[in-house]
Amino acid sequence: MSSPTPSKALNSRGSASLHTDVPMSSTLSDRYSRPAMALHWLLALLIVGNFVLGLYMHDLPFSMTRLKLFNWHKWAGVTILALSAARLLWRLTHQPPADLPAPAWQQRAAHVAHGALYALFFAVPLAGWAYSSAAGFPIVLFGVLPLPDFVAPDRAFAEAIKPLHGALAWALAALVAVHVAAALRHHFVDRDGLLLRMMPRRG
Amino acid sequence: MTARTLFTLTLAAALLAAVAQPAAAQPKPAQLQAGSEIAFTTRQMGVPVEGKFGKFTAQIALDPKKPETGSVAFSIDTGSARFGSAELDAEVPKATWLNTVRFPQATFQSSSIKAAGPGRFEVAGKLAIKGVVRDVTVPVQLSQAGANSTATGAFAIKRLAFNVGEGEWTDTSMLADDVQIRFKLMLSGLAPL
What we know:
- The complex is a heterodimer of chains A (203) and B (193).
- Chain A has 203 residues and is mostly helical.
- Chain A has one domain: Fumarate Reductase Cytochrome B subunit (Up-down Bundle), CATH 1.20.950.
- In chain A, 64% of the residues lie in helices and 2% in strands.
- Chain A has a two-stranded antiparallel sheet with strand order 1-2.
- In chain A, helix 2 runs antiparallel to helix 3 (64-93), helix 3 crosses helix 4 and helix 4 runs antiparallel to helix 5.
- By secondary structure, chain B is mainly beta.
- Chain B has a single domain, classed as Lipocalin (Beta Barrel).
- Chain B has helices at residues 3-20, 86-91; strands at 29-32, 37-44, 47-53, 56-61, 71-77, 81-82, 105-115, 120-129, 132-145, 148-158, 178-188.
- In chain B, strand 7 and strand 8 (120-129) form a beta hairpin.
- The mean pLDDT of chain B is 90.
- At the A-B interface, helix 3 of A face strand 3 and helix 2 of B.
């Protein structure tokens, strides 16, 4: 295998003393906590699903289906927002597993990417909520719980921020793609067991 | 009785009726002022969405002290309905909804006006939308400041009773049957309360 093992990489740099006991491949003991994993995978599903739904529905002709899908998209968005708040709270109050040994720029890039992902978990649904409120369509969660208008109804403002929701969603999609590519690279190329830290233990 | 006699009798009766109507009992018509509005709120999957009629006329003759002598009539341009959303505004004129080509006007004609408390009235009459005529009773609250009167009120109608929303849109779990109608009329020329 051409890629160096984590311990080789570590030795060659002679740094990262915190990681002298880096577990190898699938023997990792340092995993994310169960709630962190649950929130990660649930949100992964919701975010990918809602992105695809958004792409599909946005230029459908006016119909009952379109109306239904728009409402589902908004409910899912608000759910993503609420779960992301819970996730951020959990993340801030619980130590995640330490970084695996890697070049400093990679570690930094990973942290920046994670920070940006978190920022977009909030920015995308909030921009959508603002657009819906401004357009004069208040959100009624699951058809029963009316949410306050995030911004006052204002047609001109609605048109102005409409592209923002889309642009932010595309930025999130791009970051998710990088995130998934990086995770897969760790798993299949570096074989450092990083991906398993987000996988519930078997048995 | 010949047709001619019948005609003469009918004419005489009509003339008599017109003369018998005591002129003093007929209140002077009030004028609709700018700032008046008629709005409607629909509910789509629980989401209230408000629209307005931009163009309507009214013939209002009411002496607030003798409301039973008054009468109220409205004519609303269905084509002037606007939600403010380009998508919805393109839908409303279609045959499924208001069918504005065939039914360019919605009308209301009062049949009786009753006092219902200080500054409050109950106006009963016939509402015609999309060729369907239904009896409605509209509560009206009247307030006055100087020579200007403001009449406000709200009531609900069942859209399906008027065939508003046909085909798949008869599903009231998606689009509620109830449509709230809200109005605020700025009037001048109304007698004091």
